[in-house]
UniProtKB/TrEMBL annotation:
Species of provenance: Flavobacterium hercynium
PROSITE patterns reported for this sequence: THIOREDOXIN_2
GO biological-process terms attached to the record: negative regulation of protein ubiquitination; negative regulation of Wnt signaling pathway
TM region(s), chain numbering: none
Thioredoxin domain ranges (all copies): 319-457
InterPro entries linked: Thioredoxin-like_fold (IPR012336), Thioredoxin-like_sf (IPR036249), Thioredoxin_domain (IPR013766)
Molecular function GO labels: thioredoxin-disulfide reductase (NADPH) activity
Protein name as annotated: Thioredoxin domain-containing protein
Pfam families hit by this protein: Thioredoxin_8
Amino acid sequence: MMIAIRQLFFFLVLSNFIGYAQMNYTVKGNFPQVKNKQIELIGFEVLKDTIISKTKSDHLGNFELSYSKKYVGGALLKVKGESVQEDITLVVLLNKENFVINWLDLADYKTLHFENSLENDTFFKGMTLYQESESILAGLKYLKPLYKKQGNELKWLEKEIKVKESMLPSMLSKLAETNYAGYYLKIRKLVADMPVTASSYSERIPDTEKQFKTINFKDERLLKSGLLTQLIEGYYQLMESYGDTEIVTEHCNSATDALLKSLNGNNVLKQEIAIFLFKVLEKRSLFKSAEHVALYMLNDNSCSLDDRSIGFYEQYRKMAVGNQAPEIKLVSDNKEIKTLSSIKADYKLVVFGSSWCNKCKEEVVELKNQYKDWKENYNLEIVFIALDSEKEAYDAFISDFAWISSCDFKGWKTQAAVDYFIFATPTLYLLDSNDKILLKPFSGAQVNSWLIGNGKK
């Protein structure tokens, strides 16, 4: 009986150990140049990154990290330096593998080797193949116009171009569906191709559009790739290659419809990516396309928006360029100026900020540098609406402001902040003399650029 109990005990211990081993995988490494350094394994989740595991290398440069079997995706292996500039990062793929990384010389990727990792061997083989074929393609395409009238040579060039273009796709087509590197390389190639397509191969744009519109943006492989932001930013920048504003808007909106449609069924993810896309379009001054995102989300009956998202999009719809800015009742030491509309100036820059906002403090420095020039050359007045709740902090913050400042100490509940749908500081609006919205700038530097190009002196 005692023997049977002992056997059962050891069986349970062994089962638990095996279960644990199956739940976690290890990444071991030897980087001789990295001794006694902090090392992090950083994973990705949609638009954010997170530390999966961290450790410290020993005096020989050996280290060991772990990751869960639930995490399948791209990751960064980061060796922490004395400063951010001295950090060393390496892209690795994680997919239920215990593997070893040996890197003799951190300045030479040829000395980088993986043991027991089909994923990372495939990734680096694919990246090498892509870089080599793209280098040869550049030369072949340069020669093609020179041999326009030489039939045989031109046919040979066209054949070689097709061969080189098909090398990586051919390799990827032979990989198993379970191989994450195949999917990752496909997306990474699409991202890497976009700037080159814009500058040299415009004939590729229609094919790029087709590929982008077929992407499932709910795919966990994409959400954990670390490539999502580059994919979205790169694609809409590529669409600007069409030049004509109306055509650019048409192509951007068509892609947006496909992207957001692919997110149906996951409201939280849809809201997160839609807001990111909206900000990308605004930053690139693609305002009509940003408006399209806002209206799409506001009219999407399948997606229940949270209050923050509703306010975010309403800010765009009601505070769009060309609209009339809401009136603001000013609470300031200047008793003669009681409202925004009573300010007599050709331009009014309304700035929402606060003493507790570090980014606002940085922006105020820029405003101070520009204010005198703007006032004298463009008849521009700044109206600073503070979202402070403590008078002492507010008074110290605005003590050397040369412009109009207002605060009712209600924080985010300040009526102007509610009327203007303010959800972040600093937020800026450039208005004309009649309070019509001319620009929603991201900074004082952007205001200055606009005034130089469009302002009336």
